[in-house]
Amino acid sequence: MPKVKLPRLTTPYVRRNGELVPTDWDEALTVAASGLAAHAGRSYGMFSCSKATNEMNFLAQKFSRLVMGSNNIDSCNRT
Asked: Of 22, 32, 56, 72, which cross-links 45 as Cys (Cβ 3.0–4.6 Å)?
């Protein structure tokens, strides 16, 4: 697949029939949410950073467990 420089911060894109096409933010977020929901708990993991605050790492693990349904959480705090 050739590299294409896309203005992702101003225009969202979704993949239709193997091609990226511009769309509006509502559709892009709906597509992203349904894609994440389809794989929740099975193929999702999060790696948080020890340089982040305890509060940020707490929110990261809460998001992983409650929203994504995954216990696949790791951090480099133990090194």
From this structure: 72
- Contact present, 43 and 51 (Cβ < 8 Å): no
Low-confidence ranges of the chain (pLDDT < 70): 1-2, 6-8, 40-42, 77-79
Structural contact between residues 14 and 20, judged by C-beta atoms closer than 8 angstroms: yes
Distance separating alpha carbons of residues 14 and 11, to the nearest angstrom: 10
Residue 26: per-residue pLDDT: 95
How far, CA to CA in Å, does 4 sit from each of 25, 30, 44? 20, 23, 26
Helix (H, G, I), strand (E, B) or coil at 22: strand
The rounded distance, in Å, linking the Cα atoms of 27 and 72 is 28
| Residue 64: how many other CB atoms lie within 10 Å | 19
